[in-house]
Amino acid sequence: MNDRALRTVTSGLGGFHNGVVREAGFDITVASEIMAIFCLATDLKDLENRLGNIVLGYTRGGQPVTVRELNAHGAMTALLRDAFQPNIVQTMENNPALMHGGPFANIAHGCNSVAATTIGLKLADYVVTEAGFGADLGAEKFFNIKCRKAGLSPDAVVLVATIKALKMQGGVAKEDLGAEDVTALKAGLKNLERHIRNLGKFGVPVVVAINRYTADSDAEVAAILDFCKGFGVRAISCTHWADGGEGAVDLAECVVELCDSNAAQFRTLYSDDMSLWEKTATIAREIYGAEDIIADKKVRAQFARYEREGYGSYPICMAKTQYSFSTDPNLLGAPSGHHVPIREIRLAAGAEFIVVVCGAIMTMPGLPRVPAANAIRVNDEGRIEGLF
Amino acid sequence: MNDRALRTVTSGLGGFHNGVVREAGFDITVASEIMAIFCLATDLKDLENRLGNIVLGYTRGGQPVTVRELNAHGAMTALLRDAFQPNIVQTMENNPALMHGGPFANIAHGCNSVAATTIGLKLADYVVTEAGFGADLGAEKFFNIKCRKAGLSPDAVVLVATIKALKMQGGVAKEDLGAEDVTALKAGLKNLERHIRNLGKFGVPVVVAINRYTADSDAEVAAILDFCKGFGVRAISCTHWADGGEGAVDLAECVVELCDSNAAQFRTLYSDDMSLWEKTATIAREIYGAEDIIADKKVRAQFARYEREGYGSYPICMAKTQYSFSTDPNLLGAPSGHHVPIREIRLAAGAEFIVVVCGAIMTMPGLPRVPAANAIRVNDEGRIEGLF
Amino acid sequence: MNDRALRTVTSGLGGFHNGVVREAGFDITVASEIMAIFCLATDLKDLENRLGNIVLGYTRGGQPVTVRELNAHGAMTALLRDAFQPNIVQTMENNPALMHGGPFANIAHGCNSVAATTIGLKLADYVVTEAGFGADLGAEKFFNIKCRKAGLSPDAVVLVATIKALKMQGGVAKEDLGAEDVTALKAGLKNLERHIRNLGKFGVPVVVAINRYTADSDAEVAAILDFCKGFGVRAISCTHWADGGEGAVDLAECVVELCDSNAAQFRTLYSDDMSLWEKTATIAREIYGAEDIIADKKVRAQFARYEREGYGSYPICMAKTQYSFSTDPNLLGAPSGHHVPIREIRLAAGAEFIVVVCGAIMTMPGLPRVPAANAIRVNDEGRIEGLF
Amino acid sequence: MNDRALRTVTSGLGGFHNGVVREAGFDITVASEIMAIFCLATDLKDLENRLGNIVLGYTRGGQPVTVRELNAHGAMTALLRDAFQPNIVQTMENNPALMHGGPFANIAHGCNSVAATTIGLKLADYVVTEAGFGADLGAEKFFNIKCRKAGLSPDAVVLVATIKALKMQGGVAKEDLGAEDVTALKAGLKNLERHIRNLGKFGVPVVVAINRYTADSDAEVAAILDFCKGFGVRAISCTHWADGGEGAVDLAECVVELCDSNAAQFRTLYSDDMSLWEKTATIAREIYGAEDIIADKKVRAQFARYEREGYGSYPICMAKTQYSFSTDPNLLGAPSGHHVPIREIRLAAGAEFIVVVCGAIMTMPGLPRVPAANAIRVNDEGRIEGLF
After folding, report:
1. What is the helix (H) or strand (E) element at residue D348, kind and residue range?
2. Parallel, antiparallel, or unpaired for β B234-238 and B206-211?
3. Which residues of chain C are modeled with pLDDT < 50?
4. Partner residue opposite D376 with nearest CB, options C10, C18, C75
5. Element holding C286 (H helix, E strand)
6. Do B18 and A5 touch (CB under 8 A)?
7. What is the DSSP string of D191-209?
């Protein structure tokens, strides 16, 4: 099956004996609200309850129809029961790691499961978790959604920076990123500065980790170190890409230090009782540097509807490009004064957030030109080959 | 999901980036050609080869497109690898039984897997297998398709008869089948006679098993025993429904006797080298008592096409009603002189047979009004409830 | 627009604001029930009433939904008002001819409008009308549907025969029809004989018109003349194809003679009060030489339903191949003893007949590879070119 | 037919014999590009040429496919030939008026046909034409599209104002517009002022026509007259709604005076050689008072594509709400500093403009709940009733 062909599917055709026609499509697992729920649920009861809360559609009279009304939440929980146990795996250096859950950072909140994080916190002295896709998306949602919901209170933030990305933010074309360019790098540092300032708004101390590549020059690394020093924030050049754990020892020690300092005063960016519009505007202004958000009548009406229906206390899950603080991927550096146009909003009543869409979201990406399945077979010994 | 809504599905909509529009639908597992292949394959290599042979469609130029050309047969075999191991279970009396595979007796050949039968023959002195859906369908396909393909040579046939079914064939209405009616029963015995004569054409000795219900009268049972005696065939009244294995001891001894007599001279009804039309006509005349088969130009052209494409040696897999020897469910008893109209024919190039459709086939039946899923849940101990 | 693309159309997609999804398609004008109604209506009131009677579909509860319930019959009549006036045109020899209406002879009854015929009968001493598509279809429906409904009583029948067609019925391949072949022609005459006998059943005197082509040999023409003489029916060789009206003078005089003889005792083949099944079987036996009709449970149930709903008195409109008296286009000559399988039946409640479908019907044929539209344009004088 | 059901239609279903599947929909006549072309074409040759230029879609390789390549422009012109002759009708006071063409003011340019205007200019001393839908849309497009294309040079503008609309722009709720409210009216006059200033940018003298309703108070009328006087623009209270032509004599005399003064120095707002983006931004800034336009990557890429394909010289046809100078219908009065988000752009290669869509456009509105067709019928005299 070509997965693209599943993007837009009409079922229930062939006459009324076949039920009601429905125009829909398949989403990949990570884009499903079920994945977001799975990652936010605290236990099986909570999982079942959230699955039951999913709003599938609306009656002609405008009343939401939930999974609970279809009485499918019990069976769904049964299907997910075993998957809900977090997986423990080991790194190449034999350290334990929990791998569990993977919601899209675009249409969902982009963090691993609350269950895994909670277990990690019970088992280890220090737990590191990832919140990727740009700190304006990944970190913002980790704080405002996952930490808020799961009652987590992080002690420190590692802000990962690469020299190539900073040069790109400084205006260098993709094909020229290999060459040393300290001037452009310095121009791009205003992007890093914005991220540092943004993270400060959550009250958690920050360390910048320079994820160093072999091509990066010492002058470039020095420029970042200098900049951060002037800014009162520690930056550490890390070489784990080349040297493994050994290359990140300095960083680890710094993180331990930050954690043990008890300097963190974690707070979310907005309170539950702000209006949905105001929450969105707050993220746009405080994190994106925007002047305001704009939306047409239909979107405004939907905000009002969700509040009327009792979803007003939900946090906002922003879906925008990861290439710019603005919604225009070409606006580099640290733009300000721009407007954030909202295309549509979607309710995730089981995940308990409102998705605010500021651009096109692809929930069923295309497979590679040669499907992985082409290489998979059972060999003469009856073993399956070609999975990796 | 309402399964009826899956009967007719259009995918690939939404523009050319989403691939090619395809109007298709889901079939339940047992109606898939993959299930038929699974049950006819002799080993994993054969399974892979047959999966590769499936014809998915035709190019604009009329050339068949196979799974092999999509290079998906390896991955499909990998998915089926573990399922291909037959399951051994036990009966309520702790006897071993192999449960493996379940192709529809309508669109497919209706027997369990060749793998299970072959294993059974290696493990036990006597192996009993089922071929249901009326002996004109079940037994005919077991002999002409499964035995032909797997090189099996059965020693005896148990023809199961119920008194209610024979009275129905004798003209009694469904709601009156409870009352004793020896006259109607005798009228219905010409249906049993036809089945006995049909089975004789395969050269295998037959014993009739009367699957006795508590409501059946002694006079009715006696009428069958008498009829069969006059016919030179043993009939045995069995009470396993009420008494378990004990109630079928006589039958079992008779079967052993028939098997040990080496009286079987098994032969299929038609040879591989007959034309597809002639094979179909042979089944219709010899098994159904029909005068001939009829088909419009389009169907005749398709027969010719399949022969041209090299599928002429395949056996025929008939799809017709199980309520009558004819294609008209109201024609009871042992009709003759009728015509068998062929609606369409389908190629199963992986299963290696041609499906000849003589009526409507439903490959995605409707679920019950209350889905089984409604009762399934995870209870407070974390156990799944409501599966049965 | 490629007209083929209109065969299968799904409308009402895009959500509930756009109404109800409907899977349907376009039919060409001549295949529409409206055309059949238009040709059977006696006046504007009758037209409006019949349009109102069209059954568009059924409610979930199984009740028919008519055009009248949608209150669209008035507007439809308004649209057809001017078209309902028959057109008078002239032939190349300046004789008047009424051209009005053209229902398909397959899914409909194949004759021009009752309005035109009625006007013709008021204006002229002799009115000739056409009922093409083989006398087993065209003439049968003209008599059983149009004459029955309009109270027409024809005085004579001209049965048009071509030598090529008769040789084809005698077994000559299409590409060999050019060569003289009196033997094959004589073999084919049993087809002509069947048509003559069939027409006799309607009580109207027949004359055979040999529509002579330049390639036809005298010996072939003589063979037909001889055959018909032995049969007591006049046959006349006509050359109007080459000579215009002059070439059909003998035929015209014969027709006048037959009409003035008052020999006709017109009767339909079946009465209104026969069951729909029996009417169909009568046509199959009496006209097609069949032994019987066959139909599965679903079709039989639909016959019963239409009778229950009050449509039992309607005549039957057969839809079958015009190449054979049977439903198999390869069964040439005058086959008998065959069975007529009925695929489906359709209600034309406005036209007031039941369509009995015995094969595939194409109600939207494909345009030629080069659309006629390609040649149409407005020239420099503002005149439209390329219409013919 | 429910017209809503035609909004989204999938054709070409049913297999490859039925052509290629196409997901499209019907538009009402006035929303069709053909209507826009029809109204901009100067003669039949130009009409044919423009129809041929319509871009129907793109090949897989990205090349535009035109009507000309399908060779359909000749036939389309033939269909439109008679319709292309302007209709002359008379008003209730027996003055001649040309009624010809009606393109939507949203997706198209909203003015009647160039053919009618040109004929009018040949026949009369003074020609009045309408360009409705708010002067920011109607007048802007009349000047920038129709006048530019047809070489028209208007002598005067009548800016029609109603007191209710001005009170609404001043913040009065719809249900309170009936009551006198001079304060709100005065607040709303900044909307009128913006329109007056905008029209001045086209170099044509303006007179304000107060389209007076019986409910309007003298104080309200006086407020407008005062305001305009202070502004150096004449305003005239008209009562043609109540008094017919008599009520607009003052206005007519003023218009004649303005025309005869030769004060007009008509110019379009932007030149052909500006980029499409810059043209759009010019309209947004100069007419809407916006700070800038914004658009995502996809829209920007399409602007670039159209320029690359040679459509860069086309004027812009804006599609936005008529309720506000901005794209937000709630922003009343004379907003400034706002951003205009562009949702999508569309090419009208036959009409020779680029449609810039700043909101939802409905090209197939819903019919009234009771279709007009319900009242239409042919009466007993054969006359059609119920059309109006």
Report:
1. strand D344-348
2. parallel
3. none
4. C75
5. helix C276-286
6. yes
7. HHHHHHHHHHTTT--EEEE
In sequence order, which residues have a C-beta less than 8 Å from that of residue B42 and are 6 or more positions away? B114, B115, B118, B150
Distance separating alpha carbons of residues B171 and B175, to the nearest angstrom: 12
Are A259 and A126 spatial neighbours (Cβ–Cβ below 8 Å)? Answer: yes
State the chains in contact with B (3 or more Cβ–Cβ pairs under 8 Å).
A, C, D
CA-based nearest residue to A37, from A317, A281, A313 = A317
Q: Is the minimum CB–CB distance between D366 and chain A shorter than 8 Å?
A: no
Q: Residue D297: what pLDDT?
A: 81
Q: Which residue of C6, C9, C11, C46 is the best one to mutate when testing the D interface, meaning the one whose CB has the most D CBs within 10 A?
A: C11
Place of tokens 């709720």: D173
Average of per-residue pLDDT across A65-89: 96
**Percent with pLDDT over 90 in chain B:** 84
The 10 Å Cβ neighbour count of residue A60 is: 6
The answer to whether the CB of C325 falls within 8 A of the CB of C331 is: yes
How are beta strands B206-211 and B22-24 bridged, if at all? unpaired
Report the alpha-carbon distance of residue A120 to residue A110 in Å, rounded. Answer: 18
Size of interface C-D (CB pairs under 8 A): 110
Q: How far is D65 from chain C (nearest CA, A)?
A: 14
Give the span between the Cα atoms of B147 and A351, in whole angstroms. 55
Residues written for chain B: 388
Q: What is the ipTM of this complex?
A: 0.83
- Report residue B69 as tokens: 């050309």
Reduced DSSP (H G I as helix, E B as strand, rest coil) percent helix, strand, coil of chain D, to 5: 40, 15, 45
Per-residue b/e over B103-119, b at no fewer than 16 CB within 10 Å?
bbbbbbbbbbbbbbbbb
Q: Does D388 lie at the interface with B, CB-CB under 8 angstroms?
A: no
Q: Span D68-78, mean pLDDT?
A: 95
Regarding beta strands A22-24 and B22-24, do their DSSP bridges make them parallel or antiparallel, or are they unpaired?
unpaired
According to the model, what pLDDT value does residue C247 have?
96
D298 part of contact set with chain A, CB < 8 Å: yes
> Which residue's entry shows tokens 């993007």?
A7
C57 contacts chain D (CB < 8 A): no
Cα distances from D384 to residues D367, D377, D387, in angstroms, run: 21, 6, 7
CA-atom Rg of chain C in angstroms = 23
Query: Interface partners of D (3+ CB pairs, < 8 Å)?
Result: A, B, C
CA distance B177 to D74: 74
Asked whether residue D80 carries a pLDDT value surpassing 90, the answer given is: yes
Q: Is B141 left (phi over 0), alpha (psi -120 to 50) or beta?
A: alpha
Q: pLDDT band for position D38 (50/70/90)? A: very high
The whole-angstrom distance between C58's CA and the closest CA on chain A is 11
Over pLDDT 70: what percentage of chain B? Answer: 100
CA separation for the pair A1, B172 (Å, rounded): 51
Mean pLDDT of chain A, nearest integer: 94
Report the pLDDT value the prediction gives residue A152, as an integer from 0 to 100.
96
- Edge-to-edge strand list for the sheet holding B344-348: B316-319, B353-357, B344-348
What is the token pair recorded at A173?
């074309």
Closest CA to C365 of D17, D71, D298: D17
Residue A129: φ, ψ to 5°: -130, 160
Residue B136's pLDDT is 96
Query: Among all chains, which residue has been given the structure tokens 């009002």?
Result: A304
Residue C203 sits at the vertex; the CA angle it makes with C197 and C208, to the nearest 5 degrees, is: 50
Which residue in D9, D14, D75 is closest to C13 by CB distance? D9
By 3-state DSSP, what share of chain B in percent is helix, strand and coil, each rounded to 5? 40, 15, 45
> What is chain A's length?
388
Angle between the N-to-C axes of helices A218-231 and A182-200, in degrees from 0 to 180, rounded to the nearest 10: 30
CA distance C54 to chain D (A): 14
Instruction: Give the containing element (helix H, strand E) for A339.
Output: strand A339-341
